[in-house]
Amino acid sequence: MKTVADLTCLTRRCFAVVAIAALTASALPAAAQETVKIGLIASLSGPSAKSGEAITRGLMLAIDEINQAGGLLGMPVELIRRDDENNPGKGLTAARELVQREGVAVLFGGLQTPVSLALVPYMNQSQVPFMGPWAAGTPITKNGADPNYIFRVSAVDEMVDIALVERAVAVHGAKNPGMMLINNPWGESNEKGLTAALEAKGMPTAGIERIEANDIDVVPQLTRLKEAGADTIFMVANVGPSAQVMKSLERMGWDVPVVSHWGPAGGRFSELAGPRAADVEMIQTFTFSGNDSPKAAATLDALMAMFPEITGPADVTPAVGIANAYDAMHLTALAITNAGSLDGPAIREGYYAIDTYEGLIKTYQTPFTPDDQDALGPEDYVFTRFIDGEIIPIE
């Protein structure tokens, strides 16, 4: 019998979780020696591996709690992971394997928006619920499908973009902001959102510049924005290219405010970006640092018990990956319980039937409806910055 299988464990502590799940499974009736399979596709290698690790830890902690309480439908929960290597094609191949061969009840994943968008049509066609704990591209959940099997506990670009514009205006007095956007569908999603948010305020943009994932110098793009009079930079990119933006600003000696989506949180940004890393104001959905919630304290204690390498809030960067995945897994457990089966359409309806859940990020009240399959909104966002490698809320 399988327990919490994990073919690409990022930490030796995974074996302890396997043992815990095995003990839980052995306590269940002999007739129930099967598992509820939960799939995860994420970046488990490369510059965004810390994000994939955080999502894994959030899922593992929630699954351990669920299994200790007796599992789901009388069966233990099993986590099966695959590395998409930030590649949409590999992500789609992994999704087909997990759905068709492994028979997962729900698939989590799509750390990168391009990967998620590649999976959306297949998951809707397969009628297997997909839960997004990270990728923020607006079209992921707002994909036009009916019925729609795509759910999310994460930020949403169009809402994030409004928050970025509000902060730039309120805190930095921005009147002519510029954009530095990754050249992929995530960047395109935020170009639409930021443009709409600026137009709603009657504001222009100094320009829109593109960043490639492998750029090692973006001084030319930044120079164009500077010459156009940009007084704030909106940055949308993951760890590597975001770090290059800040290093290029340092070389230019341009001290311009940078208001960012949460991409820099996904890896070794504070190490890679150099002295300007702490200048980035970055949106998040959750942070353990500066959080006096009893639920946050209890969850951090549980993480430290499960993963001894975690000794405090600084060791759980990015906390959003843990928190989003943890809450999403518990909401998924409620959906499966509501469904009373592992049938995809029934689980989909089970998400809509969730009433209240006291989560890590917030207390959820009817988090999903057929018209809105995103559980988090602008009221759940907080601005942070890196201080000595730790993501700290900005007062």
TrEMBL record:
The region annotated as signal peptide is 1-32
**Looking at the keywords, is Signal present?**
yes
Record's keyword terms, sorted:
Amino-acid transport, Signal, Transport
- Describe the location of the Leucine-binding protein domain by residue ranges: 35-365
Output the superkingdom of the source species: Bacteria
Q: Tell me, what is an example of a GO biological process annotation in this record?
A: amino acid transport
Q: Which CDD domains match?
A: PBP1_ABC_ligand_binding-like (cd19979)
One of the Pfam families matching this protein, by short name: Peripla_BP_6
Return the PANTHER family for the record.
Answer: LEUCINE-SPECIFIC-BINDING PROTEIN, PERIPLASMIC BINDING PROTEIN OF ABC TRANSPORTER FOR NATURAL AMINO ACIDS
Family membership, please give it.
Belongs to the leucine-binding protein family.
Name of protein = Ethanolamine utilization protein EutN
Q: Which organism is it from?
A: Meridianimarinicoccus roseus
